[in-house]
Amino acid sequence: MLSKYYFKPLLIILTLGLMLSLVNNAEANDTRNRVLEQPNTITYRITWDAELDPWDSKATKDVKFLSATNSNNTNLIFNIKAYKNGFEITNTVSFADFYPMVDESRLSSGYFNLFVPDNLARSTWMGESDLKGIIPKYNLIYAGGKAFVKSIDFNGFCNRASYPYWDTERVIWNVVPNSKYEFYLGSYVGNMGASSLDAGKNYTYIFSAFYRQSNGKIIGHAYKEDNYNYYSSLLRPTNKITFYTPADDPSIVITNITTDTATISWNTNNTNPEGTSYTLQYQKLKENGDPKVEADWYPWAIIPIDGENTTTKLTTTASVFESDNTYRLRVQVNHIGGPQYNVYSDYVIFSTSADPAVRAAQEAAIAAQAAKKAAEDSVQYSLDAKTSADFVKSEIEHPEYGLQALASQIKNATPFIQRISHPREATITFGNSFDLVINATGTPAYMRYRVICEDFDSGWVPEDNITITGLHQEGLKKALVMVSNNPNNPEDGVIAKDEFKFFKASF
């Protein structure tokens, strides 16, 4: 039995070991870096009252007017993949029967034009409006010497919408997390080409038209004046493309931990727009509970802020805790599109210990976890990362309870195996080998690992990634995993043991 004089150092060591493990193995968050796939079916209304048969680009034949105006609704599907900072359209959009005419010399600027949603009619003057980064590839057919679009392959990543204004770019919007975007895509009513017959007497302007494959007709709206024949049509959308960007999942940072209070903030690694709604949640570990076992945690509960379950604030001081207990904290980001899009931060674990060394070690480890996530997400939070790093450094160098002062005690900490897994979460192999990754608390420099499986024995090694070889017989396999805290003589140290089961099979 441990002497009472060793209890306090051991408590510090075990707590620090748990927090250091959190830094190296942040809890998995299935909502992190979420991609929202949102297909949009857009209906385009096509109308025509005249046709040219056969097509004559020089207007040597009369336009044939129909007895009534005809119309058709065509549905096109746009597959939107929305990210926190942009979106993709990566599918092929195919026209059915009605193929819009284009001027090949203008295809580089895009056939589809962006219409702002507040005023579809007025927005047509924008001309070559653009979704920056979306690159269309046009699949054309030809009739009467003119080019018509049969389908469009969309490919690219867009992070803003804009349009040219003289020599400058006017940005309509930039893509940010937790936001809703709406826009129309349609054909621009502009001069798609012109031809003349007997200059100065009779001109025919070709604005736009459709080739109808089912009957081989060129159709559109026709207008006749004394000296001009206008022939035009418009691929006008009747509904908007609408999509939501996923919310950003922030990191929780905890400071000023006492026996019953803590200051909690979630503005680190947070690119959500101002006004985003959050819900702060916590769990308490049951008495004598194991932090690894989900059943040993009480259900998630809400920490009210200013008497409300949701807030737009980014920090709070909570006093819902009890002395000498262990808690998990997370923040829920409430998406503007509804709860089905909500995301959660990685949770952090801390204890309301009466010992300042334990509390300081926890704060340092949690700050380091936030800095690690910033690097993983490749987000430019250099100031936050620097602040976190400076804080960790100050805690390491603290003369009374700094991490360096505890090093001599940490190296003798009892190892604890938290998790054994395959790098890709596999539980079966069709080959003759199987990879294991061992996550254990302790000081990495002092830890040694060993795996035994049938005739395989890795021996004691410093790497926590071990490949089991020599698997020739099919069936259930049991791997004995051991971790020692004695680098020089592992068998003489404190050894933690666990078992991992997997299958060997053949094709």
Over the alpha carbons, how many angstroms does the gyration radius reach? 33 Å
Total number of strands? 35
Instruction: Bin the helical content.
Output: 10-25%
Main sheet overview: 7 strands, antiparallel, barrel
Number of helical segments with 4 or more residues: 4
Notes on the protein architecture:
The chain is mainly β and 507 residues long. The chain has three domains: 4-34 and 247-410, Sandwich (Immunoglobulin-like), CATH 2.60.40; 37-244, no CATH class; 416-504, Sandwich (Immunoglobulin-like), CATH 2.60.40. Helix content is 11%, strand content 43%. The protein has four helices and 35 strands. The protein has a seven-stranded antiparallel beta barrel. Helix 1 (7-24) runs parallel beside helix 2 and helix 2 packs antiparallel against helix 3 (382-396). The radius of gyration is 33 Å and the shape is elongated. The two termini are 52 Å apart. Mean pLDDT is 76; it is low at 1-28, 57-61, 116-129, 188-206, 379-389 and 400-411.
Question: What's the arrangement of secondary structure elements?
Answer:
Blueprint: H1 7-24, E1 36-52, E2 64-83, E3 86-89, E4 92-94, E5 98-102, E6 112-115, E7 130-131, E8 134-143, E9 146-158, E10 160-165, E11 168-174, E12 180-187, E13 194-197, E14 202-206, E15 210-212, E16 217-224, E17 228-232, E18 236-237, E19 241-244, E20 251-255, E21 262-268, E22 277-284, E23 301-302, E24 315-318, E25 326-334, E26 343-344, E27 348-351, H2 356-376, H3 382-396, H4 407-410, E28 416-421, E29 428-429, E30 434-441, E31 448-453, E32 456-457, E33 465-468, E34 475-484, E35 495-504
Helix pairs in contact: 1-2, 2-3
